[in-house]
Design brief:
It is built from two helices and no strands. The chain is mainly α. It is rod-shaped, with a radius of gyration of 25 Å.
Length: 66
């Protein structure tokens, strides 16, 4: 596997058009990865047991009466 400095050196030796194509490809790759990671992290959130959870209140409180 190439190191960062090797990849950077190779990218610098590309023509301007090739660098632009590489940049577009990498940008799309990063966007897809961010979307996937965001989607995965929202699926991993634990489900709350709302019937059990009432916070610090011993019973349900009507917000209008409170």
């Amino acid at each position: 596997m190439s190191t960062y400095s090797e990849v950077l050196s190779q990218a610098q030796s590309l023509t301007l058009e090739e660098q632009q194509q590489l940049l577009e490809f990498l940008s799309e790759l990063i966007r897809q990865r961010e979307t996937t990671e965001t989607h995965d992290s929202t699926q991993r959130l634990p489900r709350k047991n709302l019937k059990r959870w009432r916070g610090f209140l011993p019973k349900r409180v009507d917000a209008l009466e409170f």
